[in-house]
């Protein structure tokens, strides 16, 4: 199994997005960021959801 995590806690998710933890929670509550999942009572975010959020909505085109 690889060392890559499938789900991360809020502090690590905020770090991945280069924002503060307070800003992260505010954006989650506002629905700007993906909703968390509960795993055994722990709140985690899927890394794939966070990566998808970072993808540009309109990728640049080359002509």
Task: Summarize the structure in words.
By secondary structure, the protein is α+β, with helices and mostly antiparallel strands. The mean pLDDT is 89. Helix 1 (10-16) crosses helix 2 (21-30). It is built from three helices and three strands. The longest helix is centred in the middle third of the chain and has 10 residues, at 21-30. Helix content is 40%, strand content 16%. Strands 1-3-2 form a three-stranded antiparallel beta sheet. Strand 2 and strand 3 (42-46) form a beta hairpin. The protein has helices at residues 10-16, 21-30, 47-54, and strands at 7-8, 37-39, 42-46. The chain is globular, with a radius of gyration of 13 Å.
Keywords:
3 strands, 3 helices, alpha+beta, 16% strand, 63 residues
Total E-strand runs: 3
Major sheet strand order? 1-3-2
Number of helices: 3
Low-confidence stretches: none
What share of the residues lie within helices?
A: 25-40%
Q: Mind telling me the C-alpha Rg?
A: 13 Å
Q: Can you tell me the overall shape?
A: globular
Question: What is the CA-CA span between the terminal residues?
Answer: 41 Å
Q: Strand percentage, roughly?
A: 15-25%
Determine the oligomeric state from the structure: single chain
Order of helices and strands: EHHEEH
Mean pLDDT across residues: 89
User: Which structural class is indicated by helix and strand composition?
Assistant: alpha+beta
Task: Give a short account of the largest sheet.
Answer: 3 strands, antiparallel
């Amino acid at each position: 199994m690889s060392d890559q995590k499938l789900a991360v806690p809020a502090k690590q998710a905020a770090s991945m997005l280069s924002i503060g933890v307070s800003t992260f929670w505010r954006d989650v509550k506002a629905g700007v960021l993906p909703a968390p999942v509960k795993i055994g009572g722990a709140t985690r975010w899927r890394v794939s959801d966070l990566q998808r959020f970072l993808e540009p909505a309109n990728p640049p085109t080359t002509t």
